[in-house]
Amino acid sequence: MIGKATNFAFTLTLAAGALIATLPHRSAAAATEKTNLTIGITQFPSTFHPNIDAMLAKSYILAMTQRPFTIYDKDWKLICLLCIELPTFENGKAKEFDAGDGKKGVMVTYTIRADATWGDGTPVTTDDVAFTWEVGRHPQSGVGNFELYRRIVKVEAHDKKTFTLHVDKLTFEYNAINDFQLLPAHLERRHFVEPESYRKRTAYDTDTANPGLAFGPYRIVEVAPGSHVVLEPNSTWWGKPPHFKRIVVRVIENTAALEANLLSGTIDYIAGELGLTLDQALTFERRQGHRFEIQYKAGLIYEHIDLNLDNPILKDKRVRQALLLALDREAISRELFQGKQPVANSFVSPLDWIAFNDLPKYPHEPKRAATLLDDAGWSVIKDGFRHNAKGDRLTLELMTTAGNRLRETVQQVLQSQWRRVGIDVRLRNEPARVFFGETVRKRQYPSMAMFAWISSPENVPRTTLHSEQIPTAANGFGGQNYTGFRNKEMDDLIDRVELELDRGKRRDLWRRIQEIYVEELPVLPLYYRADAFIVPKWLTGIEPTGHQYSTTFWVEHWGVRN
Amino acid sequence: MRTLLARPASAGALALLALLIAAAIAAPMVEATLGLDATATDLLARYRPPSAEHPLGTDEIGRDVLVRLLYGGRVSLSVGLVAAVMAAAIGTLIGLTAGYFRGVFDAALMRLTDGVIALPLLPLLIVLAAVDLSKLGLPEEVVRAEQASLYRIIVITALVGWTTVARLVRGVTLSLRTREFVRAAEALGARPWRVMLVHILPNALSPIIVAATLAVGQIILFESVLSFLGLGIQPPLPSWGNMLTNAQEIIWTAPWLAIYPGLLILATVAACNLLGDTLQEALDPRREQKR
Amino acid sequence: MLRYLTHRLLQGIVVLTAMSFVIYALIGLMPGDPIDLMISANPQLTPGDAERLRRIHGLDRPIVERYLAWAGAALGGDFGYSRAYARPVLDVLGGRLLNTAALMIGAFVLALSIGLPAGILAATRPGGALDGAINLVCFVLIAVPTFWLALMLIILFAVVLGWLPAGGIGTPGGGGLFDTARHLILPVLTLAMVESAAYARYARAAMIEAMRQDWIRTARAKGAGPVRVVLGHALRNAMIPVTTIMALGFGALFSGALITETMFAYPGMGKLIYDAVMGNDFNLALVALLFATLLTLIANLGADLIYAALDPRISYAAPERGARGRRA
User: Which of A248, C73, C185, C250 holds its CA 20 to 30 A away from the CA of C244?
Assistant: First the structure.
């Protein structure tokens, strides 16, 4: 009977396998007169308020309904979306002022597009700017990026459309106000009467489908919590009229199910920002490449291993360098990711203008790694592992987020590669909540922690590399210098680079910062993660940016291939 | 035992279970014989089909599937068997005590049972995953061992899995304690514990064993669900459950990576259930009495 | 009986209160608060920001104080706001409960209507061909993890055949009752398949047990037909344990089905609780879990009452009285 059972099950599973092999060729729909687009993503936003909680799913959807003043375009250049012209010192719209204590501040003047109008017909004005600032800097409003609004000491409205921001610190990013997302004063002011309960009353969450909340190409018309969001064109949009009459964003968290939904035609397109894992996309391409175009874009998601520099073993620079030399990151990138995720040499993406090609690199050189380890005193090899003179084994612990299959896969490859040079690496993983919420944040990982940083173009690594940003109980575990990296020169460079307006001089500073980084190796760089956009052949206009601003900021250019 | 072997289905089940356990125990020997290493990855030999070198092929990072299945069997079977036995033991103790002493004891224990049944597992698991075991006085060696996740899972499942057995045993005890033979023992001055262990427990064994055998399969599956949530057995330790979960995202490329562990779980579940069925019959107290 | 019920209800309230604290403490003990999660998502937050946000969300106070404040408000009918959704907890729960009710009750009914008859059929001739076949199917269903079953059903019915939607709760824009029902079929089927196997196993075991009783043999000897024996005599007795299991199963329904909901992108209680716990949405997780606990406790009480009502050997107050049961 067991024999029968097994046979039966085997037939079942074989049948399933056969089903998978002979998968359907049902096309999503007749492409020609497609006016609806259904996008699949893996996360549902918890709030629709643009300035509360930074969440990728939310900014993905809101990019269709609202536009910030400034943003990086797909060539990573700062451009104006809601404003007319970027203020600069050259065009006279940016001016220095004395912010006290010998610090320099900056006054930047922007003009809102004349045709910018909220979906209910109310023009977008400097009233909205003043209101947004008022909400943002109010300590009780619950806005996440308080720092941005705190730095603005004054908002000066010249007329309905032109205003000047007084910012208390002049940095090279002085004219970027990407996160200053405008709120409609005419709808929101009455909810802000009691600032402490604003969060619970905001129209973004109580009346999400209100047309007055949008001034972009689309507006939200329906929200089914946990399931989908429906958007339709906004009649007051100033730019190119969008092609699609209706965009549905469906949320399917499980990526295997997400893929099946795409094949069944329930969704048309899987967004790269929140979509399939890279290896899924690669095998998907092999099977369905004739129907879908897979666009890969490596960008600013920097996958790396933080080293706890308080660990006596890792205090030795030679051990850190040996760890990296022992890894064959090229092979991982080539075999697991087909080269779509380039090997990282530092925290700066090769696509960034401050990247340098000629900095020292760490190729796969196990022999050099072995020499360095010998020099560092780990020269006695017993049972295949290195020991020091005292007989201690060279044992390190590599931790990461549990349940992230791709990361766990890479982790096991790393473990096996280190083993070949005699380093005993143990794996211990924790759920993301525990890992980020406790272990990494409070620097409780004993030796190595593997995760990713998401950054923006020319991102100053103050929070991760400045010695003031080492989390301790004394500073309430603020800061993200989880490695405990202390370097006087680095601190000084970070302070200077932020304030340096001259691009040429800044580039020199950036070079020195990266030189120290790759020499000291507080962090083992792995690779830059790539997003895979699964685009049906009939869909055009999707241009991955590689940075944190999603493709939907250009949704009006999406269309159907003739 | 005689009944077990007399029925072909249960004899087969027994043989199968023995085979699975033997294979799991033999994992290091198979590994050595084949000249393989369960954790050694080979990026140039991913998704290899079965060959003489790799009898069941290789997985997504070039590890031998057969050896991993055997090691996975060690984990899954020990989680299933150990946790099931522990849970049954706790449940029996609580059920016996509650059913025999009744009154306040019974009420308190049964409300405790209600509480545990209603206890939300998810936050519990996350809290336990974050508990620093070294602070509990466990030796560093155990805490840092890659098997730590295995011990956690066994303890957690045992701690929350005893409720069914407790309810069953309590029910049986409640009705048994009024029977003549129990009364007679009490009249002769037997201590409560003696009555419970010698007179009541043997008669309550049937439901306990059925519940425990059913639990083995359920626990193995429960581990796979935990893996699905990232709370299960952690890599590089393989288990049938986490192998199955991992195969989910690569189902289109390598369905066989799911089929093998799936079949092994199926075989274990079927074997345990068939065994449970037969045991239930074999241990039926009425049979004993008739003889 | 009334006395017993009052007793049990009082005990139930004690358990519920204790559980509310246990759950509160469990969620509070979990490492990392929502602000930590925000910081890891947004590197620009400064320590000052974090502290300010903690104060706004009341996370800077000790847990017992927070619990008492919460419990006081809850007794007054104010269950607080969900942190993540910035909506009153009951608002957030409402829609999800409806979804879950549709999904779970559908699955429960389907599972019973497949599982019970299958179990009874199997028990009519234990060891026979039909018994073997039913057991086999049960083992397969018990051995298949839910996420695999769900994925297979999606591939078969949505991708290959294209008969049913692959997931979601309805066509965006609304498609009426029929549309909702179509979206329910696959998740209900997934859940029902797994559950029906368990019910079939329980029903089979209970029936076999019942058929072995002496009085069934007596009924047979007296010339009662097999159908009459099975349906008239054995079934009634076998229903005792089965009903208990059913009642217990019903209590678990409203904690949702996390895996099935995830695979079918179906917004129900399971996913809500999971997200609330993972995202440290204190109030929401608490209320949702307490609600599930309450239902479990009620169902446990129901199970005990049914058990007592069906089995005369167990009585509420005076155990001695009904001691001589008819089976003994």
Answer: C185
3-state secondary structure A429-491: EECHHHHHHHHHCCCCCCCEEEEEEECCCCCCCHHHHCHHHCCCCCCCCCCCCCCCCCCHHHH
Cα-trace Rg, chain A:
26
**Beta-carbon neighbour count of residue C134 at 10 Å?**
22
Determine phi and psi for C83, rounding to 5 degrees. Answer: -65, -45
**Cα distance between the two ends of chain B:** 16
Spatial distance between the Cα atoms of A285 and A252, rounded to a whole number of angstroms:
20
Using only C-alpha atoms, chain B has a radius of gyration, in whole angstroms, of: 22
> Which pTM does this prediction carry?
0.85
Number of neighbouring beta carbons within 10 Å of residue A19: 17
**Cβ atoms A163, A124 nearer than 8 A:** no
* Torsion angle of the four alpha carbons A47, A50, A54, A59, in this order, in degrees rounded to the nearest 10: 90
Return the residue in C100, C137, C142, C155 with the most chain A beta carbons within 10 A, the one to mutate for interface testing: C155
A475 CB neighbours in chain C (<8 A) are 47
Collect all residues of chain C within an 8 Å Cβ-Cβ radius of residue B124: 26
DSSP annotation of C80 reads -
Q: Can you tell me which residue has the tokens 């089905």?
A: C257
Across the interface, do C22 and B119 touch by the CB < 8 Å criterion?
yes
Contact in structure between C308 and C316 (CB atoms under 8 Å): yes
Per-residue DSSP letter, A342: P
pLDDT reported for residue C297? 82
Residue A369 has, within 13 A of its CA and on its CB side, a CA count of 22
What are the structure tokens assigned to A81, written together?
């979306």
Q: Which residues of chain A fall short of a pLDDT of 50?
A: 1-32
Place of tokens 């993972």: C278
Question: Would the CA dihedral through A515, A516, A520, A521 be positive or negative?
Answer: negative
Sort out which chain C residues have CB atoms less than 8 A from A437's CB and list them.
Answer: 30-33, 36-37, 40
**In this complex, is the C-beta atom of A114 within 8 Å of any C-beta atom belonging to chain B?**
no
Across the interface, of A53, A248, A252, the residue whose CB is closest to C167 is A252
| Cis amide bond preceding B236, omega within 30 | yes
Which residue in this structure is represented by tokens 């009744």?
B102
Which of C139, C259, C323 lies closest to B266 in CB terms?
C139
Name the DSSP class of C88: B
Give the C-alpha separation, C268 to C255, whole Å. Answer: 9
Token readout for B129 is: 């995953």
- Tens digits of residue pLDDT in C42-86: 555 666 777 777 777 677 777 788 888 888 888 888 888 887 787
Whether ipTM exceeds 0.95 = no
Nearest to A478 among C46, C136, C279 (CB): C46
Contact B64, B54 (CB under 8 A): yes
Residue of B111, B175, B221 with shortest CB distance to C313: B175
Residues whose CB is less than 8 angstroms from the CB of residue B180 and which lie 6 or more positions away in sequence, other chains included: none
Q: Does C140 touch chain B (CB under 8 A)?
A: yes
CB contact under 8 A, C173 and A205: no
Chain C from 245 to 284: CB within 8 A of any B CB:
248, 251, 255, 258-259, 273-274, 277-278
Give the CA-trace dihedral at C302, C305, C306, C308, to 10 degrees. Answer: 160
Alpha-carbon span C304 to C156, nearest angstrom: 42
b/e code A244-261 from CB counts within 10 Å (16+ = b):
bebbbbbbbbbbbbbbbb
Confidence at C281, pLDDT banded by 50, 70, 90: confident
Q: Identify which of A154, A136, A80 has the alpha carbon closest to the alpha carbon of residue A110.
A: A80
